[in-house]
């Protein structure tokens, strides 16, 4: 649902500031420059919140508020006063007419958004409304860890990604960093002095700009009590030390809602290629499975009628991977996509060990597999040998 | 209407200084410093903001148990910079929009400053309401207060630029 926020202010500057404040949020800003216009827009658009100034020409905010609250159709619209007219008695008098909040100018944009968020559940613009970010897009990752070796390990472990990993060692430095750059993800150690990891988490959650930033807890594998506590307070994920990097990468991508499908699927020379990596953890299998049907139907939509299943990098073949491959082959067959396999000596040998896979035939390389579609090449090996 | 007791020069200075600095730090992230006060220079006019640049002056009044008006003087170039910061537009965008955007921004800054000042007066037992902002543009402004009005002038420095707040105050008889 897209919420409507009505700003009634004779100052165009204030209306621009309001629009600027809500720019990154999924809501529509309606404008009126005096009380008469404000009532007309309110009646026509039924806004979810009204931000109302007091001193305006034609009809001032107090008169508009009084009329709004005496109209059965409009009285339920929550009103937040946004005005330079303060003073205790003034505020009390207006509050009695019925307002949800009162902001005295000058005001911070963050405060305005926060007050409106208490009334309606506006969310930052979803990734769906923007271009969905992929694993090939840069991102800023903040690691808060007082042990430089761990920061270094993370930087090293993620250096093949386009993500920039920034290391800081204290909560204060982390807050300073967030003031300058809004990170896409934060990883905080739970062993910082004086429960610094938990303090930082609370501070990030109360700041409007980092309220929705994923925060991972970094904790030693055996410290189960700290892990439990981190889950209870709402950390997005627990990363145990020693860190398993392929899992960390997958979790980061998921938390940042990145499109990781390009890691496994691509369309090349009119063929849909599915590439499986060296290791297939349960998380990776789930990830590939979640993209599979969409990629196959997308290929059909784009007139692609063939597919290459490339498992030449796979180090070992087990039942979950075989199930995944069967499921993919079935999806292809259902929409008449012709498919071939590319393998390596190990997986070809392992295929021989399973009744269902012993007759699979493989090409040695992607190039040979591609040329097979034009009848120029035949599979080099069958699992049955 | 009961006559309002005069407020001391020091209190007025503190109120104007606080109102000005609150607006500049909150809306523009600018620290300000009070650099010249007419109470310390009887009979003198404040140093001119500029020799050549025209000025943009916002004016907002307050009416009630105490009446008054504050003129906020800014050099036109500074007014443009302030507008850019306030609304998040580039100087080129501001130029293409024309003077109206700058006028409106200066009007709103004056409104917030006078609002902060007069809200403090309200809390001191002098209820009053704001008027709608108006804008003057030009050079060589001289404010001549009415015979029964008091005038206090305050000059501030922010971001290496100066701006002047000219306060006219009239207590009810």
General description of the model:
The complex is a heterodimer of chains A (385) and B (173). With 385 residues, chain A is α/β, with parallel strands linked by helices. Chain A has helices spanning 12-21, 35-45, 61-70, 88-98, 109-117, 148-157, 171-180, 196-206, 224-233, 245-255, 282-301, 319-334, 345-352, 366-372, and strands at residues 3-8, 27-32, 49-52, 79-83, 101-104, 139-144, 163-168, 185-189, 215-220, 237-241, 265-268, 271-275, 306-310, 338-342, 361-363, 381-382. In chain A, the strands form 3 sheets. Chain A has a 6-stranded mixed β-sheet. In chain A, strands 2-1-3-4-5 form a 5-stranded parallel β-sheet, sandwiched between helices. In chain A, helix 13 links the parallel strand 14 (338-342) and strand 15. In chain A, helix 2 runs parallel beside helix 3. Chain A starts with a strand and ends with a strand. Chain B is α+β, with helices and mostly antiparallel strands and 173 residues long. Helix content of chain B is 37%, strand content 31%. Chain B has helices at 9-28, 76-87, 91-97, 99-123; strands at residues 32-37, 55-64, 66-75, 128-130, 134-138, 150-158, 161-171. In chain B, strands 1, 2, 3, 4, 5, 6 and 7 form a 7-stranded antiparallel β-sheet that branches. The A-B interface holds A 10-14, 16-17, 20, 54-57, 83-90, 104-108 and B 22-23, 26-27, 83, 86-88, 100-101, 104-105, 107-108, 111-112, 114-116, 118-119, 121-123, 127, 129-133.
Nutshell version of this structure?
The termini of chain A are far apart. Chain A is of the alpha/beta class and 385 residues long.
Note the overall shape of chain B.
Answer: globular
Distance between the termini of chain B: 8 Å
Low-confidence residue ranges of chain B? none
State the helix count of chain A. Answer: 14
The strands making up the biggest β-sheet of chain A line up spatially as: 11-12-13-14-15-16
Mean pLDDT of chain B, to the nearest integer, reads: 90
Q: How would you state the average pLDDT of chain A, rounded?
A: 90
Radius of gyration of chain B: 16 Å
Question: SSE order of chain B, as H and E?
Answer: HEEEHHHEEEE
Order of helices and strands of chain A: EHEHEHEHEHEHEHEHEHEHEEHEHEHEHE
Q: How many individual helices of chain B?
A: 4
Number of strands of chain B: 7
What's the gyration radius of chain A in Å?
Answer: 29 Å
Report strand % of chain B. 25-35%
What is the terminal separation of chain A in angstroms? 59 Å
Shape of chain A: elongated
Mind summarizing the main beta sheet of chain A? 6 strands, mixed
């Amino acid at each position: 649902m897209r919420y409507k926020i009505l700003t009634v202010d004779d100052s165009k500057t204030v209306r621009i500031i309001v629009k600027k404040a809500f720019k990154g949020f999924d809501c529509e800003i309606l404008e009126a420059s005096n009380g008469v216009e404000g009532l007309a827009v309110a009646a026509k658009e039924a806004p979810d919140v009204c931000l109302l100034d007091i001193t305006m020409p034609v009809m001032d905010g107090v008169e508009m508020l009084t009329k709004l609250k005496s109209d059965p159709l409009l009285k339920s619209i929550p009103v937040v006063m946004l005005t330079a007219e303060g003073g205790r008695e003034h505020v009390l008098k207006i509050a009695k007419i019925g307002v949800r909040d009162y902001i005295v100018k000058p005001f911070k944009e963050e405060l305005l958004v926060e007050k409106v968020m208490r009334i309606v559940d506006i969310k930052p613009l979803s990734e769906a409304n923007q271009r969905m970010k992929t694993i090939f897009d840069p991102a800023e990752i903040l690691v808060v860890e007082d042990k430089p070796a761990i920061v270094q390990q993370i930087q090293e472990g993620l250096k093949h990604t386009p993500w920039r990993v920034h290391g800081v060692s204290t909560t204060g430095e982390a807050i300073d960093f967030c003031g300058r750059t809004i990170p896409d993800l934060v990883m905080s150690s739970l062993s910082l002095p004086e429960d610094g990891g938990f303090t930082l988490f609370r501070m990030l959650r109360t700041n409007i700009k980092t309220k929705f930033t994923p925060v991972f807890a970094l904790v030693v594998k055996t410290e189960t009590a700290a892990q439990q506590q981190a889950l209870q307070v709402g950390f997005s994920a627990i990363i145990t030390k020693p860190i398993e990097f392929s899992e960390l990468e997958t979790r980061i991508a998921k938390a940042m809602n990145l499109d990781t499908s390009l890691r496994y699927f691509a369309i090349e020379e009119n063929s849909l290629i599915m590439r499986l990596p060296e290791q297939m953890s349960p998380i990776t299998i789930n990830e590939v499975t979640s993209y599979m049907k969409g990629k196959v139907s997308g290929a059909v939509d784009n007139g692609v009628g063939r597919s290459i299943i490339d498992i030449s990098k796979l180090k070992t073949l087990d039942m979950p991977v075989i199930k995944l491959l069967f499921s993919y082959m079935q999806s292809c067959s259902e929409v008449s996509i012709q498919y071939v396999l590319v393998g390596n000596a190990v997986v070809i040998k392992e295929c021989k060990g399973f009744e269902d896979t012993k007759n699979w035939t493989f090409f040695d390389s992607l190039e040979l597999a591609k040329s097979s579609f034009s009848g120029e090449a035949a599979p080099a090996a069958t699992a049955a040998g | 209407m009961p006559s309002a007791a005069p407020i001391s020069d020091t209190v007025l200075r503190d109120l104007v200084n606080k109102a000005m600095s609150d607006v500049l730090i909150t809306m523009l992230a600018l620290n300000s410093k009070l650099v010249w006060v007419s109470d310390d220079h009887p009979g003198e006019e404040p140093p001119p903001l500029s020799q050549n640049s025209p000025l943009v002056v916002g004016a907002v009044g307050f009416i009630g148990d105490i009446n008054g008006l504050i003129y906020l003087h800014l050099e036109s170039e500074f007014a443009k910079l302030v507008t850019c910061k306030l609304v998040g537009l580039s100087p080129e965008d501001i130029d293409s929009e024309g003077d109206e955007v700058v006028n409106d921004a200066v009007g709103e800054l004056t409104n917030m400053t006078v609002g902060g000042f007069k809200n403090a007066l309200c809390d001191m037992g002098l209820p009053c309401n704001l008027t709608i902002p108006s804008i003057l543009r030009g050079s060589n402004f001289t404010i001549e207060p009415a015979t029964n009005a008091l005038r206090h002038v305050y000059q501030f420095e922010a971001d290496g630029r100066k701006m002047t707040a000219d306060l006219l105050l009239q207590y009810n008889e």
